[in-house]
Design a protein that fits this description.
With 298 residues, the chain is mainly alpha-helical. The chain has twelve helices and no strands. 69% of the residues lie in helices and 0% in strands.
Length: 298
């Protein structure tokens, strides 16, 4: 096992700090300010058209999950980027683990900027048409962000064609959409559990199709509830475009940040030992989603 480089040690410290942030006065103030909007969102979730949006969103996410080709990147294009950067031996996901994290980060570059720009344009377009646009906007936003997660995964050596990696990717979106400290802790614990099992080379039995779909449906339902609630202000015609584009870019930023830190941590775990992952965060008991939104009847 190789010694961790100075760059990798610094990166790991940054990752652990990101996973356990200190909430300052601004974060506390935003919690108080957002509470009335959260309460209003809870009331509006009972509206018939909101339920329709959530159901359509769930259907869209489940369909995407069952066909990873819709959102996974072409690994060969990523490997080609590494070879163009001078790493001629990179031909498979496994070859990437031999690199220093600093070399991978250079190839990744400003990947988040690409996806935030796309999200801003897409959200502004659908936001301009108000409530009708939500049924299109939310599934499109989720698919875009799954592709962003898939691209980060490929750069750091993980294959999203595998079921465990697809479940991990969906849980990254669950983390990014978490509206409270409790839901963030739950999502992080599930991500840690999956990360540990993969890093320890735990044998993943091929999930029954019905079980895999059930897990994805539960995550999809939570995402549908959370994103619809967060984007209800988009239904106001005068400000819909600004809110739609702004929220999409903000959500995509959170997804890209989560993918960036989590896949870098998993890369370091593959290279230097799985104990890296649970050094700062406890793991869930299993990979089954336990989001409170998934228990809502929509």
């Amino acid at each position: 096992m190789k010694m961790m480089s100075k760059y990798e040690k610094h990166a790991l410290a940054e990752i652990h700090a990101w996973k356990n942030p200190k909430i300052g006065w601004f974060g506390q103030a935003m919690t108080v300010i957002n509470q009335p909007f959260n309460s209003a969102g809870d009331l509006l979730l009972s509206a018939p058209w909101v339920g329709d949006v959530i159901r359509k969103t769930m259907e869209g996410i489940t369909n995407v999950a069952n066909d990873a080709a819709q959102w996974s990147v072409r690994p060969e294009s990523i490997f080609s980027e590494f070879r163009d950067a001078g790493h001629r031996s990179i031909k498979t996901h496994n070859d990437i683990v031999g690199l220093d994290l600093s070399e991978i980060d250079k190839v990744v570059g400003w990947l988040d900027s690409k996806y935030k720009g796309i999200a801003l344009v897409e959200g502004a377009g659908t936001g301009a048409v108000g409530a009708i646009g939500l049924a299109v906007d939310i599934p499109a936003l989720i698919i875009l962000n799954l592709r962003a997660v898939g691209e980060y995964a490929a750069y750091y050596g993980f294959d999203t064609s595998k079921q465990e990696e697809r479940i991990f990717a969906f849980n990254v979106l669950g983390l990014a959409s978490s509206p409270s400290d409790g839901s963030k802790a739950l999502a992080m614990a599930q991500l840690v559990k999956i990360s540990q099992d993969v890093a320890k080379k735990t044998t993943w039995k091929e999930l029954e199709k019905s079980t895999f779909v059930k897990i994805i449906q539960e995550v999809a339902k939570a995402l549908g509830v959370r994103l619809t609630k967060a984007k209800l202000a988009q239904t106001i015609p005068a400000v819909g475009a600004a809110i739609g584009g702004g929220f999409n870019a903000y959500f995509t930023m959170k997804v890209c940040d989560a993918a960036y830190y989590l896949y870098r941590e998993r890369f370091l775990a593959e290279k230097h030992g799985h104990e890296i992952i649970y050094a700062s965060t406890p793991a869930a008991k299993d990979i089954n989603p336990n989001y409170p939104e998934s228990r809502k009847i929509i």
